Amino acid sequence: MKILLVYYSRTNNTRKISEEISTKLNCDVEEIKDLKERSGKLNYLKSGYDAIRSKETQIEDMKNDPSDYDLVIVGTPVWASTMATPVLTYLNKNKNKIKDLAIVVTFGGSGYEKTISNIEELCGKKAIATLPISRKDRDSSYDHKIDEFTNKIE
Predict the structure, then answer these.
(1) CB neighbours of residue 92 within 10 Å
(2) Does residue 13 come out as left (phi exceeding 0), alpha (psi in the -120 to 50 range) or beta?
(3) DSSP-assigned letter for residue 151
(4) Number of domains the chain contains
(5) Maximum Cα–Cα distance for the chain, whole Å?
(6) d(CA 72, CA 76)
(7) Can you give the residue range of the structural domain that contains 112?
(8) What are the pLDDT digits (tens) for 132-146?
(9) Which residues fall within 8 angstroms of residue 4, CB to CB, at 6 or more apart?
(10) What's the CA gap between 110 and 124, in Å, rounded?
(11) What's the DSSP call for residue 34?
(12) CA gyration radius, the chain
């Protein structure tokens, strides 16, 4: 099975998890790069506001075409109980090219269930596997969660 993992990471939490998954699955990985500045506290608040409003952003062109893959894993932080706006932008451009879907979400509070549901609804398909990683998980060992997720995919 040919797998593509695409992710967005504002604070590198989603990046770290995505890299671990891509190593275990030996899959292609690509970062969604936002052209809007998102670092710092003020931009953090603006990012949450954009997410609440489902406002798209401008992202760099991607090198991989999701239609070339059997499965696309989407990685996103949870912003205001939904996906990050760069992920929303990516999915709006590519949702019809995704054959099968898996989802990775990183979060500090709540709302990950709604985020997963929003991604599934936008893509029009149920994820074959989901991986929620909380701040608490990141502070301890979460290897078993990644193993369960990758086993469902393999």
Answers:
(1) 12
(2) alpha
(3) H
(4) 1
(5) 42
(6) 13
(7) 3-153
(8) 999 888 777 889 999
(9) 27, 28, 29, 30, 64, 66, 68, 69, 71, 72, 73
(10) 23
(11) B
(12) 14
